[in-house]
TrEMBL record, chains A, B, C, D:
The active site is at 128 (proton acceptor). Pathway: Carbohydrate degradation; glycolysis; D-glyceraldehyde 3-phosphate and glycerone phosphate from D-glucose: step 3/4. It is found in: Cytoplasm. GO terms for cellular component: 6-phosphofructokinase complex. Homodimer or homotetramer. Keywords: Cytoplasm, Glycolysis, Kinase, Magnesium, Metal-binding, Transferase. Residues 2-301 form the Phosphofructokinase domain. Pfam families: PFK (PF00365). Belongs to the phosphofructokinase type A (PFKA) family. Mixed-substrate PFK group III subfamily. Catalyzes the phosphorylation of D-fructose 6-phosphate to fructose 1,6-bisphosphate, the first committing step of glycolysis. This is 6-phosphofructokinase. It comes from Streptomyces pini.
């Protein structure tokens, strides 16, 4: 078969491992030929391709990023998007398309498969781990590893200087990275978007930690929100100019650090981990997951299971429907959050 | 409640994280008091204890090993073993025992619970990942990480010198570490005890890899075996003095390296990773798993679910019966091994 | 002898390794007794001590931070400071004091030794590496390692998204961390406080890098400054409210990222590494340096070489005068900066 | 100018960083053209070349190994070797040759320069750090890092099981890796080839360590030797068949582990680190050193400083004579070994 492949959305570790597995199995077991599209859906719309054969994927298993490039282009944002996608596939005589991406990229894929009959299968990747029906997404374990290592390092500074250290981690709409890295890093408080936090409560945890002679580490997802009243309360002193939630949240870690300092009188420092969470060599778990997803995706292609997405369930790779997996976001369950609450304070 | 805790068998990363979670939740949520037993079952038989309170577990989350010590003592190897266990529990007025261990340690626990009414629950740990009914055991992810990092490093030597590099990893009776680290490390051939290997086939993979201009890495579990005939064939030149399988297997990596060199004429080097696979800081995944196992184990104690073992199924922590989980070993399924065979050669 | 020890200034990896070496050699070879002062000079002024014996330092070699705590208290900032220092030493009948710190901590030590006859020796530590007369200070190599690892991770994001990535590293008044990590991380441009930078030139390098099909990484020390005219030029659009240089510089990485984006039209992201640069396990080099400094400091005490500081010169540990080592800062030599300029753009 | 480059001897981390620096500066500042020789001196003898331009070295800074390949071929081992070297240089119209290697590779270079007028300069690399007149060689810091990380991991196993752990590290003829990693890893005893060891003394250290409630780690260079009498004593039980020193030393770590177990009755395990010490990404220090050596080597070429070798002295890159740097080996000074002896036992 002739198969197109693209990687879309923010980059994350493990994308190349997916590509390598697809190509290795496709070429060796099925005799497939591959066409890589440059920069996600944009490359399909513009018909920009990248060579994708065994030579191209050699040595890429431990490399972060994606040899195909990526973008956040949504092919359905333009009226003739679906037609242009179909046109490009036809021009290259492609029998199928494998789409590796997060919710947005795969959401477009779901609609193209369902509404426009594009013969495609999906592979879920995002450091945010917010795609339902799969235990984990490619990239998440690596991001948790980077964040945990950073938290490990910050403990010594917190303790040597009796400071509060606030660590802002990524998590656009779900607190998975915060929850896992906070727990693994021994944070004294973890704040996630699923559970608006009470600054007063956070300050109590901080002070209780100081009484236990250790210094606190507070891990906060960059999309976590204080309970509503408090935002109004502090809008005066802290510049929170916009009603747009995204603008408001930018810098929530810095904001919280200042609030803690103001309320408790304890010196506080904020670290924003930023893009180091999505770069670099994938963890062994992510290489394993990415590789198996790639192997199963090419199988799905050969079975014509259009509109399906590879998923991890326990230790098995299964398939779910893209439409279902992109219809909602997987967020942290309240009972799980409560479970780890025993370590707060 | 008054709860005893022990860690048995070979040490592995994450044991302290289990202890910390048990104690944090037990003390804070249930008001429990804990007694740690020194060096696994041996400490119960000899009534040797170690203080185990919140102070003792503080700061231990990222530390490898076990603050309780460990041993391979089997309490049922001596006739009055069960009575002595019950005696020690009575002497300390313990209401329950939490046993953290691998197949042997937990197997003894299963019989003590089933046959002698010892009120205990189990937590599975072993870098070998060979305990059934749980997706993973504590320590496995870290061991895979160490082995993968080593394989990553060996690639450059293989390629610069056009050598075959054989890497012997642990795996007493199951090939999990070899399979996962070999796949994550981009090995060109992975040999596991579940699938006796054919040296001729291995040499063909090695030579095919050289033709592709790269140098091969062969990952082999220390319990992997060549197909039967070959052992006899080479007993003459290689000192394989004993018919005891354990003795015979000691050094299978070295043996394979020499065989490859002899048959293909390619220079070969063997690296035996050894104990670095079971030491040091646990990976974030292991800290997460260990912590959740600990939290759930103390819940099981308070629910009087004697003879149960915490288990990971997908992302949920469940409970299974110790007797069932220790009645067999979880080995690598042939279909999984076949799945990754696409990367051989 | 009876010897007091303190660690002052910002914490950094390797402090515990210095303490361990002092105590091991002092106790075993000289029969010394030690008193640790809590939180740097503050503990001496307030007479707050911490036990410091072989038991206290055991296992601390790989631990970041300082078991003594630290502070930025300057004992000479108060009129009777020197008297209080002498009073505390007399009260504990201490024959000597070992002061481990950066320029400020050691500067106070120099004056106490020279002007007030305090019998002390110094050990230089600071991630900034800005103390003269020693090749390196304790903590620097670890900080460079953390920054380099972060830059390694950011390359993949830069390339996958064709973005400019600006990395702000520490370096209060010298560009050593920026220079070493930028070179080791393969940055395309390194900006240090010793060399005011020209934003136009930076943008040219950025664009030349894109033409070479790779995406640029810009490493900037948090104290680096653009050439003077430009600050005025852009004060209008970017809020730079204060004339105080420290305030102005806060966020120079963010400022530069926006400038590059504005001028070149290329998407840009800034990562501020912050406190992870000064925490966590020391690198092997720092453990080696810290240990040898500790061993030589206790020798200096027994030789009564008051007012001296341990220093690294090549592979030898020597002694220099504290007064001289704290009279100026060691900055990056223009010829060295020029040497690495071949990699810019 | 037209410049040939080769990398010889065992591979080590940082070789590509040297190549990258040579090419970047040569092309950009001097307008040079480069020819890479495949597999060290062998490629010169056989006239086998590899493209070496800016494109070839791009992205190689963090990669271990060498893109040129390496071998241990000695060009002077064959009678017409010098002539063939000169012939190859003439055939490619090369004005100079840069030789990157250890003692053997550079020793041949020294003689070719001195006796045969080959216009060449040298760059010292070897994880063994045994080349005189330079503080460090390329690759050493990375090897120490790998060994230290392994020792860090082994501490937990030693302590959990109260075992002696023997770690055999590389060091063909000098104990530098053992000394630095042993000190940085907190070993309780370090055995190097420069100081024949007394097994009785080692056992005393081991037992004293157990009395202090910790378990011992013994670091031994693979070329370390027991004092003479002992070898004879134990030849009976341990197969030490050959009088050839190299054969005898193979496995000295295993031998020592068994001796300790036999004499003290304490369980002992040996880990042989092997080739992971010479593979993988170079440390930041090695990237810095390698890069600066490369920049200075191409300067030396343009100054016609034939027969010179780049060297590190303090923080400065200097030049020394290849003939002098290869006339002897740099071994560990007795006073330095004595200095760290305070940590033994």
């Amino acid at each position: 078969m002739r198969v197109g492949v693209l990687t879309g959305g923010s980059d994350c570790p493990g994308l190349n491992a997916v590509l390598r597995a697809i190509v290795r199995k496709g070429v060796q077991e099925y005799g497939d030929e591959f066409t890589g599209f440059r920069d996600g859906w944009r490359g399909v719309l513009r018909d920009e391709t990248v060579p994708l054969d065994i030579r191209a994927v050699r040595g890429t298993l431990p490399r972060g990023g994606t040899i195909l490039g990526s973008s956040r282009t949504n092919p359905l944002a333009q009226e003739d998007g679906a037609d242009r996608v179909l046109g490009t596939l036809a021009r290259h005589r492609l029998d199928a398309l494998i789409v590796i991406g997060g919710t947005a990229t795969l959401g477009a894929a779901a609609r193209l498969a369902e509404d426009h009959g594009v013969p495609l299968v999906g592979v879920p990747k995002t450091i945010d781990n917010d795609i339902p029906l799969t235990d984990y997404t490619v990239g998440f374990d690596t991001a948790v590893g980077v964040a945990t290592q950073a938290i490990d390092r910050l403990h010594t500074t917190a303790e040597s200087h009796k400071r509060v250290l606030v660590v802002e981690v990524m998590g656009r709409s779900a607190g998975w990275i915060a929850l896992h890295s906070g727990l693994a890093g021994g944070a004294n408080c973890i704040l996630i978007p699923e559970q608006p936090f009470n600054v007063e409560q956070v300050c109590e945890w901080v002070e209780s930690r100081f009484r236990a002679t250790y210094a606190p580490i507070v891990v906060i997802a960059d999309s976590a929100l204080p309970e509503s009243g408090e935002i109004t309360l502090h809008r005066g002193t802290t510049p929170l100019p916009s009603a747009d939630p995204r603008a408001r949240l930018s810098g929530v870690g810095e904001w919280l650090g200042r609030e803690i300092e103001r309320r408790t009188g304890k010196e506080s420092r904020t670290t924003v981990l930023g893009h180091i969470q999505r770069g670099g060599a994938p963890s062994p778990f992510d290489r394993w997951l990415a590789t198996r997803f790639g192997l199963h995706a090419i199988d799905a292609v050969h079975q014509g299971d259009w509109g399906s997405m590879t998923a991890l369930q326990g230790t098995r790779i299964t398939r779910v429907r893209l439409a279902e997996a992109t219809s909602t976001l997987k967020t942290v369950d309240p009972s799980l959050y409560e479970e780890v609450g025993v370590f707060f304070g």
